[in-house]
Design a protein that fits this description.
single chain, alpha/beta, 3-stranded parallel beta sheet, 4 helices, 3 strands
């Protein structure tokens, strides 16, 4: 990817927040610059926006990192940016921002919803309603992050 686009004058950059779309699987080789969420111990060797500090919510820092890259660009060269998130696939984690409007007494402990999805536990009808609500909340969160990115592209 990088060689074809760079020959045409494009800068290529990739952003990922995991989900097996990362340097371990060779994806970084296709980009001039590649930025992914990594463990704290690995941050010292990487050139990351915001000094390598990531949000713990998948998807959130991904858009921040991409917007930071766009804001720091100095040239008018065309660019190709690949932005990938895994956040929607982890909706079963019942993150606090996704559960803000839910009754906390009705929420299950960590791991319970994943067990339902994997067929290791039989969920109640209420559990399945909660899972649908968590998925919708994750989609809204993703939409908001993407809207911020698109606004930044228009602004910049």
């Amino acid at each position: 990817l990088d060689s074809h686009l760079s020959q045409a004058g494009y800068e290529t950059v990739g952003f990922s927040d995991g989900g097996f779309v990362d340097a371990r699987f060779g994806l970084a080789a296709g980009f001039g610059r590649y930025n992914e969420k990594v463990e704290d111990a690995e941050l010292a060797s990487l050139d990351l926006p915001r000094e390598g500090h990531f949000s713990q919510v998948a998807g959130e820092s991904l858009f921040d990192r991409t917007i930071e890259y766009l804001e720091e660009r100095q040239d008018d060269e065309p660019f190709f940016a690949f932005v990938q998130t895994f956040s929607v696939h982890e909706y079963y984690r019942a993150r606090p921002w996704a559960t803000a409007g839910m009754d906390p007494r009705r929420l299950r402990k960590e791991g319970y919803y994943l067990q339902c999805l994997k067929g290791e536990r039989e969920g109640t009808p209420g559990d399945w309603r909660t899972l649908r609500a968590l998925y919708q909340a994750e989609m809204h969160h993703l939409d908001a992050g993407l809207a911020r990115l698109l606004d930044a592209i228009d602004r910049l």
